[in-house]
Known about the structure:
4-stranded mixed sheet, 44% helix, 17% strand, globular
Amino acid sequence: MKNRVHVLTQKRGLVLSAQLRALIKQSVQAALRYEGIETPCEVNILYTDNAGIRVFNARYRDVDAPTDVLSFPLLAHEPGEKLTFSSGDADPETGAVWLGDIILSVERMYAQAQEYGHSTQREAAFLTVHAVLHLLGYDHELGPEQEKRMFEKTECILSGMGLSR
């Protein structure tokens, strides 16, 4: 069994190309492979615009502003530790462990790609890998050492995908 990645839209009429949807799914797979996750996992990715992500950011982080990506892990674990799952963690129907949900602002993704001078593909993969690492327990907001570790892992994963700087 392999990982299950669902890429869904929050807003009617908001379209993400098939290529970007596929790249987002590949980014999840690449991050899980890099981290050595062998258990089949499931992740939802909801894409929206700045207004949509602002609502989630205000509701769940008390920050009334848009952001680029949010992660909502379902399991608590230490970053870098070998993940172990109990049978109760897996969906009995699919056998996959639900890692959590990701919300991505495509409006912000396009703007940041332009701002940073790289492709939309790199930005989409960067935000997705970054969010998956959050689902796996990494948190750059815990200090400079954690931030460095997380961004180094992100760059290694992107490089392996052919999306280095």
